[in-house]
Amino acid sequence: MRLEEYWGVGPKTRERLTASIGVEDAVAAIESGDVRALTEAGLSRGRATRILRRANGGEGMDVLATGDARDVYRELLDLIQAYAVTRQAADRIRVLTPLLDTDPMNERLDDVEAVRAVWTALDDAERERVLDAFERYDEAGAGERPAVEAALALLDAGVVESADSGADSPFAPLAELDRDAIAEAAEALGGLEDGRVAEGVDEELDDLRESLAAADRLEANALDVIEQLREDGVRDGDGFRDAFLEHVRSEAGVTVDRVRDAMPGDAVDATDFAGTTLRELSNDLREAVSTREELVASDLRGTVAEAREDVDAAVAAVDDVAFYLSLARFADAYDLVRPTYVEGERDVVAAVAARNLSLLAADDERVQPVTYAVGSHDLGEVDPTAGPGARENPTPPDDDRVAVVTGANSGGKTTLLETLCQIVLLAQMGLPVPAERAEVSVFDAVVFHRRHASFNAGVLESTLRSIVPPVSAGERTLMLVDEFEAITEPGSAADLLHGLVTLTVERAALGAFVTHLADDLEPLPETARVDGIFAEGLSPELDLLVDYQPRFGTVGRSTPEFIVSRLVAGADDRSEQAAFETLAEAVGQDVVQRTLADARWSPTD
């Protein structure tokens, strides 16, 4: 396959890859999703990631129909990568894309759940050993030796014993390894460093290397050797020859015969004699080192070759375990659950006790699980006492394709849309979702549009060009649109928003639309409803108290009196307080005073 046929590979990228690693290896790297190979070939990590996402999940990337949907996708990948146990696992996470078929989604979920079960079964010490093994593997560069050593460490940590022996999980190949064979292979691989035999592997080779180093030092300082012997009273002739032989034998740690074999028979003087002897001795030892090293290396390579099948299996297993362990640690950290995929004619996004991952990651204390659904769900009755709010209608209607979400400012409406988007994208990547239960259809397009406070015709046009084409294509589309009125005047916004709701229903899409213009949208299509989020007062610290759980079929209140009450209470001086009191008269002085009384606030506070 030609490199230019891959998305994002132009002439310059092709030339860089070809010059660095060659066409064949570049194609192999792209097909296998190898970010590291492409970055080492000179591509930026961002470009390499974009190329691999398109090469390995191009259709899935089309699910992200808007910039805001792509932002949520990237935010999710960032959260998951924080739990990666190796750089290679992080690279594989970066190229995860939404899928369009439930079979690979379920297969990935099976693997994540299997590894998660093993991870949660390990005690703290065992988990630490596993993470240490991957850290060493990562630091060593993820070659054959680090992989085999990591496999041994995983076996020693008990991951195979903790795994379900009948499970077809990423741990299964580890259980099939010949432990003795890979232990010997690990030792043999450890003895080979960049093709050379490492020090300490073979005693004879170590001795020869030490002798060679000593002979080289003697050769470099031959004149000093002669001078030392003469200072010791040794002169020319047989006495010098014998003293020189003994000195070299002692310093180089070689036999008398090896030194004698290096001595010339026709040296003209002591300098010629010493220089020639030491040069020949060094050459002889260098050849002996080379011969011995090749013999030892051949034995080591033979040991590795005998275990080749197990070594290759260990390399593949360690990379897979690292990848799925990273996903499993993410799922475990946020207590994620497996979604139910809904296929056929029924379209739905539904979740019980859903949580927003971005807020959880930020340790936001305001995280309140919410139950919500659009489309035809099968959640069953939701226990009104199981979650916050304890509403009389805790179960979402099961036949509305569109919901219009209304309510208080800072009431979590945008967060609700983002949470639904997170659930859908995680589910379509074959990953668990942040909820107690969830039902999700597979969508061809997810249209998420956050509120953008830019009030001009250009923004309106670009927004419509972004959100209308996906729903008009006739494929399964989820519309999540936040405060459309923020980009045009209220009258026109209500008309356009009503048109979007109608279009969503007519094209058999699902949608949730956040707005403050619910009253202007009547009458809504038959399969659309209005939900409301309510603020309930102020805390003693004058924080707005909001029940983030939407009330179904009810228009939410924007509660300006709570905001005005907080302003009255927080005024810096009497003049400012008097000004806010004027606003309080406008929204209802009695309501403001009651709010402050409920918050247990008084002017002396």
UniProtKB/TrEMBL annotation:
Molecular-function GO terms, alphabetical: ATP binding; ATP-dependent DNA damage sensor activity; mismatched DNA binding
Domain DNA mismatch repair proteins mutS family: 400-584
Name of one Pfam family that matches: MutS_V
Protein origin, superkingdom: Archaea
Region Disordered: start-end pairs: 377-399
Record-annotated DNA mismatch repair protein MutS core domain positions: 71-362
SUPFAM superfamilies assigned: P-loop containing nucleoside triphosphate hydrolases
BP GO terms, sorted: mismatch repair
Key words, A-Z: ATP-binding, DNA-binding, Nucleotide-binding
PANTHER family to which the protein is assigned, alphabetical: DNA MISMATCH REPAIR PROTEIN MUTS FAMILY MEMBER, DNA-BINDING PROTEIN MUTS2
Protein name per its UniProtKB record: DNA mismatch repair protein
